[in-house]
Amino acid sequence: xxxxxxLFHVLVFPGFLFLVAFGLLASWVxxxxxxxxxxxxxxxxxxxLADLIKLLAKEDIxxxxxxxxxxAWAPLVGFAGVIASAVYIPMWSPTAVNFFNGDLIVVIxxxxxxxxxxxxxxxxxxxxxxxxxxxxxxxxxxGYEVPFFLACLxxxxxxxxxxxxxxxRMQADGLWLIGAAPLSFVVAMIALIGKLERVxxxxxxxxxxxxxxxxxxxxxxxxxLWKLTFLTETIVGSALIAxxxxxxPHFWGIPFxxxxxxxxxxVGMVVLAVKILLIVFFLSLVQAAMARIRIExxxxxxxxxxGIPALANIGVIVFITRQMGA
Amino acid sequence: xxxxxxxxxxxxxxxxxxxxxxxxxxxYPVERLEPPERFRGRLRFNPDECSLxxxxxxDCPADVIKVVRKRVEKEDGTKELxxxxxxxxxxxxxxxxxxxxxxxxxxxxxxEFELAQPSRELFMMDTRTEDTADEECDVDEDTxx
Amino acid sequence: MPKLSFxxxxxxxxxxxPENLRFTVDGELVVDADIRIGYVHRSIERxxxxxxxxxxxxxxxxxxxxxxxxxxxxxxMAIEKLADVEVPERAQYIRMxxxxxxxxxxxxxxxxxxxxxxxxxxxxxxxxxxxxxxxxILEMVSGNRGHYAMTTLGGVRYDITDEMAGKIRExxxxxRQRAEHYADIATTEATFLKRTVGVGVVSGDRCQQLGACxxxxxxxxxDYDVRAYFPYLKYDNVEWEVRTxxxxxxxxxxxxxxxEVIDACDISIQCLDLMPEGGEIQAKFPRxxxxxxxxxxxxxxRGELIYYVRSDGSDVPERVKIRTPTLANLPASIEMxxxxxxxxxxxxxxxxxxxxxxxxxxxxxxxxxxxxRRTMSWAELVKLGKxx
Lengths: 326, 145, 388
Description:
- Chain B is α+β, with helices and mostly antiparallel strands.
- Helices cover 16% and strands 19% of the residues of chain B.
- Chain C has a single domain, classed as Cytochrome-c3 Hydrogenase, chain B.
- In chain C, helix 4 (89-117) runs antiparallel to helix 11, helix 5 (121-142) packs antiparallel against helix 6 (162-188) and helix 6 packs antiparallel against helix 11.
């Protein structure tokens, strides 16, 4: 019996099924919003599910010169990383399914797996477009990964812990950490755009330049896996930012203590869902308003304008906590 | 279409379009969009006006028209020129030169645009056997000047 | 990483028409580029010599879908010069209006396509939405959204009624306002500037050396515009000015084209005002055109379009030769991409507004070593096509 509970958490909630379902919903919100910003109508709510079913029904082809093992397993590794990391993020109450001191580092590590998997899948596809796209994935990783980590470090230092659950619990008392680390919040949001490979940072998947980059040789089920990886990474990344900066499933005035565990959990989930959708709204707004920039412009700009504010914010937090503690 | 700028106005437009706006789709074939007045749809030929001069055949860039002339002997011994026109409508590019070249205005264009046929032979418009003066379509008497 | 060679085209999301570009890249830097055209060759010039002048009008219109009116205009002007027929004044103004409408339509299309190349989908959607204004005007006047068949030998086919004139004024006023908004975006939006400033740079003198024309050469500081240098229709009667830019890069070409849209709106309104009331719109045209040869040139949307027609006195032309602006701009476009980044290839190439339907012509080969001139027969062409 002991093995069923973790299996349930990984496969159903808050794991695979929940993330896929919520990911499809968030994808619809994203596409509808972008369409409205562009003065169009946008797809109906069943569209992302229909796209997924269509992809699953297509033939799965592995190119002749590609490395079969790498090509076949790369999408699974990326997807697995995202699903595994969902277990450590508080989804319905300030306590996650599993937590320990240091799980923030583990989550950030697991969330870089999709990018590395994309690189490997593209590199071993034996297609010049995929090769160029794969190198761009790594170059872009330099740009956003360090600022993202530094930005997540801000709330960790403020809360004095390496565990996401501790950080969220600390915010449940009243002050959301966005107040203590506003610069880190902005940096984390922008770095998330790079992580999810959306405009203006969708350079590895530039449609008009290198025809979808590393994913170009994938079709059928494996392409569906890539799409799902980035859909679920949207949810998990947004949930991480919500947990670290926006208090996770907490909102002032809601009497969580008086509700039972089931009702409290449901309300907490709804609160978190609203926050995630607000972050998705921000992501869609940025996508509609900007053009795609070049890779060297992206790396230069990110290291300068994302790295330094994140560091500065950490410095300020350290200084203030020292003053308060001393 | 955003008519006003400014954050508040745009937010209002967004809300309105998310909640109230109907889809832009025209439910064809129940609803139809009307082509503009000068649209060149299906060709209409009026054999009563035609003088069998053949200018339309000479000027058609796609070789659609073929004028078939016959000299028939009448009872009183004189000969009369009759004939008919054949239109291979699958070659037609709807440029309108035939209507312009015709001095009698025998060729006009209607507003019919649903012209698909299951086989090539059905595109042949033979003005002896086919009822080309179609009453159902938009009767537009203004010919191409 | 060793040098990588990859193709863009003939099938590629960046291209609207097929051509084969081969790039050699070192990392992200483009080291060498080569272009092969000919995928859309339809032997139009040869077909023109087998049809009479009236049929050729429609054949030349179908050289290209976007610059169709420029082709018929240049063709009609050439034949009218040969036959010494004068086009009535009202028809000339209507021809001028169609010319400018098509320019607006083409530049709005280009703006959307260029925005799509740099990933700016929103500008693409907005530009094509506003392009519908001019498409509705064109459909109202001619009955068709492309291949208008408005130009005939000796005049125009349809007249513009007062009601249409009112709708045209309204539509152009809205379009002018939107075009000014796009000019604003092009010069102030940060990500747009990041992708277009300093990209695809060709200096003015180099452009002239390579024979570029149209907005490409005007964005590099030279003010060559056929409408100013060799005025046709009524361009010396209306007030307008040649738009140039000193920037020499993609941003300069964007600004020149959007400015031309604004100018085209103004010129069309002036035409509506200056048009004589009533009057003929088509002159009588002879069947057989007298012997002779003539060249006509117009400022098509992409640059200078030249038609050469030689007549032998019958009603079938002996030779029609078409020199399209994209062919002249191609060497400049190769210069633009070499030395840049891979990411700049689509936008730099698209900034010359390539139209490959126009471009593909037959080539007569000159052997440099022996000086022989040789045309290839059909059998030789087939063999060349099969050879790898």
